[in-house]
Design brief:
The protein is α+β, with helices and mostly antiparallel strands and 203 residues long. The chain has helices at residues 6-20, 24-31, 70-81, 100-119, 123-132, 184-202; strands spanning 34-36, 41-46, 49-54, 60-62, 91-93, 136-138, 143-150, 153-160, 169-175.
Amino acid sequence: MDRMPYNLNVTLELARQRLRDLPPQEIAARKRVSWHEDAGEIRCPSLASVYRILYPGGQIYAGECGEVDPRWQVLILHYLASSGTSLLGRWISFKELPGGPLYRQPFYSRSVLPLVKTFGFDAERFLAAGRALGGERAPVGHIGIILYPFPLVPVCIALWAGDEEIPPNGTVLFDGSAPEHLATEDYAVLAELLVRRLKAAAG
């Protein structure tokens, strides 16, 4: 893996420190993950896989030894250290997150626009990619899917398919409890990475 930018490395180390400050049993109970004391690791289901988070070190692996994108590592650690314990069961847009309007344009440019460009005229390919990542159908848009990057962070990604007269459109929605689990900046990164994962799953 390429060397991390300094600021990302600092962010990752700070996130690991926050994890070390919390008892693993408490993390498991609060965030719907599992603590395996014999292995010294927390296991967090994510999309169609499970991440292994070593405790107390905070190193993260996919499967037995696979490397994980440092930005995804930060998101996992931030999720595990957050205080939220539940879902509200209603969708909110990015602009409804705290400070969301300030990040709205970068959020659109980095997640919604690539989503629409990739899948706007190929909704079935979008659905297949979502299912490959463990997604569920959602009654939003022409085709909507719900992905679970983390157990208490469902993300609804939806498309309104385009045709010769109407351009396609898309949206990314979060559960109303979202601010309890991640910061708004984290959701901007999460949406971008999820769209990239969908593109990769589509081939």
